[in-house]
Design goal:
Distance between the termini of chain A: 29 Å
CATH architecture of chain A: 3-Layer(aba) Sandwich
Shape of chain A: globular
Largest sheet of chain B: 10 strands, mixed
Radius of gyration of chain A: 18 Å
Mean pLDDT of chain A: 92
Oligomer: heterodimer
Radius of gyration of chain B: 21 Å
Strand order of the largest sheet of chain B: 2-1-5-7-9-11-13-15-17-19
Helix content of chain B: 10-25%
Number of helices of chain B: 9
Distance between the termini of chain B: 29 Å
Bound molecules: adenosine-5'-triphosphate, magnesium ion
CATH superfamily of chain A: P-loop containing nucleotide triphosphate hydrolases
């Protein structure tokens, strides 16, 4: 599915990722943990193709094809989805209109048929209901005035509708209350499939209780310094990054 | 190649216009003509015309292209159809709402005309108002009696399709609308095609408790040269609400000169301008608060692409008597290209001490974060840009409220976006 090889990335002239390597096979959930400023969001933006995240070395293979030269929309069409750590507010664009535009744009880029209005409504309403997103929220401008938790639920809704191959969840759990956390995690778990992979970025072991990862990676100083199974999260919770990283070194 | 309009031609036409008219009219035309002869065509050395040099624009040759859209249809409205500056009765239906042509009103020495024309928020030293007065002949007069609500909008359709029939002194149209106490009306103006040089002066008298909804769409072709002036005097508890949408032209300027003359009167203006290629679009407003407890609110939004140039000059004057004035002004501009330009000039002249006046101006590019967010969801760049520009303009369009009135404006925006919103600043 995804293979990142010796990735070096500069952000505004400063090297942030310094030889990151990572492999996520199809159907697996990999978690990335790491201290503030380690480069987790940088990794997710780079995967999504954000301007200003300059790849100076290495490559990113998706299904065996290097995607580093592709635009964000081309990557989205290939199945990359980034749930933002800080979802954006876009005044003047209703959530509904945005969802429809995005779904149709992806269908078009993939050469698939666009949904008609009735199909679209039915699909969106069903998905929104599962995430406890009201009709009113769908009518409002995208994320404008949404609470932190509502924004994250909205990201989950987009993921559910766009059905990506690789979903990158950047701190999906930040700002969520327990109920919302369960909703979001359920949303993710429902999407787990043999041909779909997840990269879950988080600071807290709690999220990983709900979304069971196959592998946990620790990102520090711009590279993966340690990978292991679920027990790694517990060790981190108890001893902190420094101790765990030093012990491994 | 457009016509060359010269000062000499204009002055000669004014003299001809004055012969054989009634004495009261002769005096009015003569005085305005003299003023204009003294002022001349405005150029950039005149402060109010610094960013919009009309004299220069009239000397430039313009290329006429077949890029004109058909004028919008407005089912259900009473129509006054001006073709190349001439009111064409057989296309019109304005009589049904009691309007008469200015030509007829002047010939009949209509008392309403004599009483009001040139007397509504008068502009003694305005070059274009004087020019227009000295040459006025064609136009429309609407008088709405006390407590009457006009059931249908009046559609003033200005269509300029043929330069040859527009004369070498341009075309100068005059509108007079008098709303008596408690009356209300909706006026919808559309401007299409390419006037070689047109001036349009509209005078609106709003008596106490009256209300006027005024919508202007300037959907000009690239060669259009026009200066329009809206003059309004707003009486006690009366309301003026204007929505102005323009895509500019070779030279397109609209001035809204509003006087809040009665207590608790209110004026609101929402403007949007979409300026691409090498077009020029000027919105100039002067709101005069002359009575206590008056309020005004104006929001202008510009989208500038290509080498388009937008000008917004907004002046708020608060006279000494106008205590408790509440005046708000906001200008926002979106620059889609590095060659595009926006000039914003807010002015406050306050002579009362108990007032609330605010103004703000922003100008910038599309939000890069929002753009990335949309693209990361699979929306191609050009479409994502168009969506953001559309969202920016939606807030202006939403102020129209009424769906029937909104539709032609929304359509104009849609067409413009399809042509220009995908323009990316970084590829230029
Ligand atoms: N636009 C930028 N300009 C300069 N430095 C930046 C920029 N964006 C990120 N950085 C730097 O890159 C480093 C990595 O940031 P990143 O956001 O990837 O961290 P993170 O691991 O996601 O942290 P957190 O856990 O706090 O979300 C930080 O030192 C940050 O200051
Ligand atoms: Mg981060």
């Amino acid at each position: 599915m995804l293979e990142i090889k010796d990735l070096h990335v500069n952000v505004f002239g400063k090297e942030i990722l310094k030889g990151l390597s990572l492999k996520v096979p199809p159907g697996e959930v990999h978690a990335i943990m790491g201290p503030n400023g380690a480069g987790k969001s940088t990794t997710s933006y780079t995967l999504a193709g954000r301007a200003g995240y300059e790849v100076t070395g290495g490559q990113i293979d998706l299904f065996g094809e290097d995607i580093t030269g592709l635009s964000p929309e081309e990557r989205a069409a290939k199945g990359i989805f980034l749930a933002f750590q800080y979802p954006l507010e876009i005044p003047g664009v209703s959530t509904m209109n945005f969802l429809k535009t995005a779904m149709n744009a992806q269908a078009k880029l993939r050469g698939e048929k666009e949904l008609d209005a009735a199909q679209f409504l039915r699909i969106v309403r069903a998905a929104a209901k599962e995430l406890n997103i009201s009709e009113d929220m769908l009518k409002r401008p995208l994320n404008v005035g949404f609470s932190g938790g509502e924004k994250k639920r909205n990201e989950t809704l987009q993921m559910a509708l766009l059905k990506p191959k690789l979903a990158i969840l950047d701190e999906m759990d930040s700002g969520l209350d327990i109920d919302a956390l369960k909703l979001v995690a359920e949303g993710v778990n429902k999407l787990r499939a043999p041909d779909r992979s997840f990269l879950v970025i988080t600071h807290y072991q709690r999220l990983l209780d709900y979304i069971q990862p196959d592998v946990i990676h620790i990102l520090s100083g711009g590279k993966i310094v340690l990978s292991g199974d679920k027990s790694l999260a517990l060790q981190l919770e108890e001893n902190g990054y420094d101790a765990v990283i030093n012990k491994a070194a | 190649m457009g016509k060359v309009v010269s000062l000499d031609n204009l002055l000669a036409s004014m003299e001809a216009r004055r012969t054989d008219v009634a004495p009261w009219l002769g005096a009015l035309l003569g005085e305005a003509g003299e003023k204009f002869a003294h002022l001349g065509l405005p150029n950039r050395r005149v402060e109010a015309w610094r960013y919009s040099d009309l004299a220069k624009a009239l000397h430039e040759s313009v290329k006429l292209e077949a890029d004109a859209d058909a004028p919008p249809e407005f089912p259900g409205a009473c129509l006054a159809a001006f073709e190349n500056g001439v009111l064409v009765d057989k296309l019109s239906s304005y009589c049904a709402m009691g309007a008469i042509s200015l030509r007829k009103a002047l010939a009949q020495q209509d008392p309403a005309v004599a009483a009001h024309i040139g007397k509504i928020n008068p502009q003694q030293d305005h070059p274009i108002v004087n020019l227009n007065t000295a040459l006025m002949e064609e136009g429309l007069v609407l008088h709405v009696p006390r407590d009457v609500t006009m059931a249908t909008p009046l559609h003033l359709r200005f269509n300029w399709s043929d330069v040859e029939t527009q004369g070498d002194d341009g075309r100068h149209l005059r509108l007079l609308v008098v709303l008596e106490e408690g009356a209300s009306a909706t006026i919808f103006e559309s401007h299409d095609g390419a006037p070689s040089f047109a001036t349009i002066v509209s005078e609106f008298r709003l008596a106490a408790n009256s209300s006027l909804r005024h919508i202007r769409l300037e959907n000009f072709a690239a060669a259009a040269r026009q200066t329009a002036v809206t003059l309004a005097e707003i009486g006690e508890k009366a309301t003026y609400r204007g929505f102005y949408l323009s895509q500019g032209g070779h030279f397109a300027r609209h001035e809204a000169l509003l006087k809040l003359a009665g207590e608790q009167s209110f004026a609101e203006m929402d403007g949007a301008y979409l300026v691409a290629d090498k077009r020029h679009c000027d919105n100039t407003t002067v709101v005069t608060h002359a009575a206590p407890n008056t309020a005004s609110k104006q929001t202008f939004r510009g989208v500038l692409a290509g080498a388009g140039r937008g000008v917004y000059q907004g002046c708020v004057q608060v006279e000494q008597a106008a205590q408790k004035t509440d005046a708000k002004q906001l200008s926002r501009a979106l620059l889609l290209s590095h060659r595009a330009e926006i000039v914003t000039k807010p002015e406050l002249e306050i002579f009362a001490d108990d007032v609330k006046c605010s103004h703000g101006a922003t100008a910038g590019e599309l939000d890069a974060n929002a753009l990335f967010f949309l693209r990361a969801r699979g929306i191609p760049e050009a479409q994502a840009r168009a969506l953001l520009v559309e969202a920016f303009l939606a807030e202006a369009l939403d102020t129209i409220g009424d769906e029937v009135l909104r539709a032609p404006a929304a359509e104009m925006v849609r067409k413009w976006l399809a042509r220009h919103a995908g323009e990316a600043s970084h590829v230029e």
